[in-house]
Hints:
By secondary structure, the protein is α+β, with helices and mostly antiparallel strands. Helices cover 22% and strands 36% of the residues.
Amino acid sequence: MHPFAIRVRYGDTDPMGFAYYAQYLRWFEIGRAEMLRALGTSYRAVEEGGVSLPVVEAHCRYFKPARYDDLIAIETGVLVLKRASVRFGYRVVREADRELLATGHTEHCFLGRDGKPGPPTPVLAELLQRAPRASERP
């Protein structure tokens, strides 16, 4: 999986001092974008190429809390690549002790400029074929 480190900011936390639960979905988005960047493209370039990737499903399973100032790694990979959709898998790990904090996935359809689901462009399909793979298991 592709790792990307980020520090938990004060504004990411709730009154208990834990990272707010919805923050993990934002971190998943950051992980996806940085994985694409590491593969040599960007979300902007994908969209300019004629395909957007709206989220059609999101799931997160929480194990331990991330806290203010923790350095965490968002690990991202492709779980399943289908004809008209892709499912990304994620792991959020605290860097200091490699403790698994959360796992999750997001599913995205490939949406063409006409607003209809369809296959990815050949360039995007090739990029996702060579992307790191994720596992369903934590």
